[in-house]
Amino acid sequence: MPELPEVESLVRGVRDALKGKRIANVSFLRPDIREVIPAERLKEILSGQKVTDVSRRGKYMLIHTKEGALGVHLGMSGRFVASDKSACLVPHTHALFDLEKNLQFRFIDPRRFGRLFSVEKNETSTHPFLAKLGVEPLEDEIDLGDHLFDASRSRSQAVKVFLMDSEVVVGVGNIYASESLWRAKINPQIPSKNLKLSQFRKLALHIKAVLSDAIDAGGTTLRDYRDKDGKPGYFQTNLAVYGKESMPCPRCRTTVRRMIQAARSTFFCSVCQK
User: Fold this and answer.
1) pLDDT reported for residue 229
2) Of residues 2, 5, 137, 188, which has the active-site annotation?
3) What are phi and psi of 4, to 5 degrees?
4) For residue 150, what pLDDT is reported?
5) In what order do the strands lie in the sheet with 103-108?
6) Cα–Cα 20 to 30 A to 62, which of 20, 70, 71, 142?
7) Minimal CA–CA distance to 124: which of 188, 51, 60?
8) 3, 171 contact by CB (below 8 A)
9) Residue 226's pLDDT is what?
10) Beta pairing class for 53-57 and 93-99
11) What pLDDT score does 235 carry?
12) Is 185 known to be catalytic?
């Protein structure tokens, strides 16, 4: 499932293409995806309106007009791509967003785990999908290391599982948690409450670096993710341990191991990560 770097890469591309442009028309080709699409309200928010901004909160992309916002969650296979209006529709196209001239954005989602929802002007922090999200790890205003330390004091869960809790911090998904912990030389099995403040501060620096590197690379494509032009990300070429079971650790050449934590695969070096 796309995480923060994939969604941030998409948001930046869509922002460049949409901000300041007027959405001429909106069409929905089915009444629901994962849930019922609030088609009439979204048409009121978008049709004939100029896009004032495109932002991200957690794994949600928000396309803003003066009337509110369209919320987009890609789910497991969702794509929000630019196209010519005259281009043939590919299977599983569920929504069309027409701009002036011949540009059109399309929401495509074969598995239908994505979401299209409406956000009112006064509820960007209170909407049910957004209200419980944790801090944004790349915000300069947040001291991420101190925040993680404070949030972990009563948590006995393994630190890797703790990092993936979106109510604590958003966007540090399975891949990026494994990579950040490897860079910080921290064992993913250590109970989060056992880590010192200095360790969380070091870990925070590596989380920011991993996420920033992934954004610069356009995200990590292991299955279905594509950017607004339909191109995959390529951060997977820079992965140190994720998906590298039985391969040598890039740092010490010990064999990378895999284990299951919270039903997800964790990749780590048993020598480097104490």
Assistant:
1) 54
2) 2
3) -55, -50
4) 98
5) 23-28, 93-99, 103-108, 79-84
6) 142
7) 60
8) yes
9) 46
10) unpaired
11) 52
12) no
On the CB side of 73, CA atoms within 13 Å amount to 20
Q: Does domain 4-119 have CATH number 3.20.190.10?
A: yes
Q: Of 3, 6, 136, 179, which is the active-site residue?
A: 3
The reply to whether 153 belongs to the active site is no
Inter-CA distances, 235 with 106, 122, 217, 248, 265, Å: 25, 36, 5, 19, 18
162 with 155: CB under 8 angstroms?
Answer: yes
For the question of residue 22 being annotated catalytic, the response is no
**What residues are paired with 97 via a beta bridge?**
26, 105
Examine the residue annotation and report whether 2 is marked as an active-site residue of this protein: yes
Q: Tens digits of per-residue pLDDT, 14-44?
A: 999 999 999 999 999 999 999 999 999 999 9
Give the pLDDT mean for 139-156. Answer: 95
User: Phi/psi of residue 269, each to 5°?
Assistant: -105, 120
CATH class of 144-268: mainly alpha
Of these residues, 15, 56, 57, 59, which one is catalytic?
59
Concatenating the DSSP letter of every residue in 55-110 gives EEETTEEEEEETTEEEEEE-TTT-EEEEEETTSPPPTTEEEEEEESTTEEEEEE-S
pLDDT at 15: 95
pLDDT at 141: 86
Does 4-119 match 144-268 in CATH topology? Answer: no
Check residue 3 and give its pLDDT: 81
pLDDT for res 221: 45
Q: Which of the following is catalytic: 22, 201, 231, 264?
A: 264
Which sequence spans correspond to the domains of the chain?
Answer: 4-119, 144-268
pTM here? Answer: 0.89
Mean pLDDT of 174-191: 97
Burial of 101 by CB count in 10 Å (0-12 exposed, 13-18 middle, 19+ buried)? exposed
